[in-house]
Amino acid sequence: MKYIHLIFCLLVASFGQVQLYANEADPSPLEQRKLDGKWLFESALLRQQDRLDQVWSSVISISSDSFTISNFLDPSKELKGKIRFDEKEKEHLDIELEELDFSSIGEPVKIEAATLKGIMKLESEDAMTIAMNIVSSDERPTKWESTDSVLLLRLRRSPKGFKEYPKEITITVETADGKPVEGAIAARFQSKRSVGNQADATRQYFQEKRTDAAGEVAFPYQQLPRLFIDEALQQIAFPKLSPPSLVDGKLKVTLAPQCHVRGSIVCEELSKANQPIGWTNVYLEANGETVADCSSENGEFDFLVAAGDYKLQAYGGQLGRRVVKLSVEPNQTEQVVEPIALKALGFALLRGKPAPEFVDVAGWSGEPVKLSGLKGKYVLIDFWGYWCGPCVEAMPILFELHEKFSDKGLAIVGVHVDAEGEVDTNEKLSEKTKLFVSGIWQGKELPFSSALVSGKVVGGGENRRIAGTPGIYGIESFPTTILIDPSGNIVDKFSFRDLKHATERIEQLLQKPIE
Fold first, then answer.
1. Could you tell me which residues come within 8 angstroms of residue 2 by beta carbon, excluding any fewer than 6 positions away?
2. pTM
C-alpha cells in the first residue's frame, strides 16, 4: 500500500477542482444515482484536524460510477477511478484509483493503483457524509469519525445554477444588536511573541484589513479572514466558515465580548535537571482551524477569545506536544488555564551527554558510520527526508559546509527518515532524489554518509513519537540538525539555514582547543 497515506494527505492538503465523470454505458445502482449532481465540501477532517481550507475551491460533480479528479495537485494532472457500492451493505463503497505519476512535473511521487474502503450515508437529498480509510486497503471504517487513518468528509449539494465560487466575499461586521462596526480588524491570523515578559509583547495580525463606515470589508474568496476583533469595544469573533455558506458572495459576522485567557507551560523533567523551559509556543484552534499563536521564553501564554469551545496545542523547542480543550462561558472576561505539563524531548535530556549510536538502521547511503569513530571532530547529525521540502532545499548549504570544513575537523552525517519505510538502500534513495540532483542540488549527489531509517510512528496521543534513532534523539520536526562536540557529547541543535551565519559558527568552534 505504498503512498496510500500520501495520496489523501495530499488530496486533503492540495487538490483543486474535483469533477467525477460518468460511464454512461454502465447503469448505476439507485444509491449511486442519488449522488448525481454537484457537491461542495462542508468539512474535511483527518486526525481530528480540519483540512477544509485545502479543499476550499473544490467542486465535486457526480454522474454514475466513474470519476476523474481534475487539477489534482497540478493543472496538468487528473486522478481517475471508479466508485463501487456493495449491493448487500448499502453504506459500503470502494474507491478504485488508477495510477498517477508526478515525475513529469518534477516531483518524485507516484500514486499507485489501489482500492480505498469507505462508508457513505445520505442525511438528506442535499447532505452526504463519507468516511474513508486512507492507510489500509483491508479495513473499512465502522464509525463516523476522523482518526489517524480515516478521512471524514461532509458534503452539501450545490444550489441550482451554481457554476463556480465567487471571486470575492463581502463581509459585514456587526455588534450583537445589529449595529455595523467601523474599524474592526479582519485578519487571517493573530500572533504574540516575546522574549521575557509577555506583558511587553504586542499582538500582530496577518493579512489584515479594517471595516469601513458600513461595517463592510471585502476579501478574495481564497484569502478569507478567520478572526474579527474590535479592540476599542473589546469584542471578538471566530466565525465558522464553509464553502456552501459563501456561494452568494456574502458573510455576516457578529462580534461578542472578549475573554482574556492566560496560562503557562511546565515541565517537571527539565525542572529536576535545573534546565530552563526555553522557547515554547501555543496554538489556538477555533472551529478546527488554527487562528492564533503565542510564544515566549518562559512558558507563559495568553489569548483573547469569545465564548465557545477551543483547543490549545502546546509544545516547545525541547518539549513534546499536548492538546488541551478550552471552554469559555458567556460573559466571562478572565480565565486562568491550569498549567499545561509537557514531557521533555529525549534530545533535551541528552544535552551534555554522549550522543547515542544509531539503531535500527536499514541501510546506508555511503559508508556506514559509528559516532564513536568520529571523536576528535565536531559532528553535525542532520535528520532529513526526501519527502520534506525544507530538508531538500537546505541540503545545498550542508554540501557547502562539507566541502569547506570536512578536512578541517567537521564531519556531517545524515539520518534519512522515511515515513513509508521503503527506502533501505542507496539505490532506492538515489531514485527518490534524482530529480533534486538534476535540479536544486545542481548536479551534486550526497557527499556524506546518511543512515537510512524508518519513520514508523509508535504510541498515540501525548506518547506519539517516531521509533528508532529519531525517537532516541527526540526528533519531531524536519529538518533537525544536532551538534556533537569532539568528546562525542551533544551540544545543542544547530541552525544552518543561513550559510554565512553557519560558516561563522563553525569557524568559531574549530578555533577552540580540543579538550
1. 112, 420, 422
2. 0.75
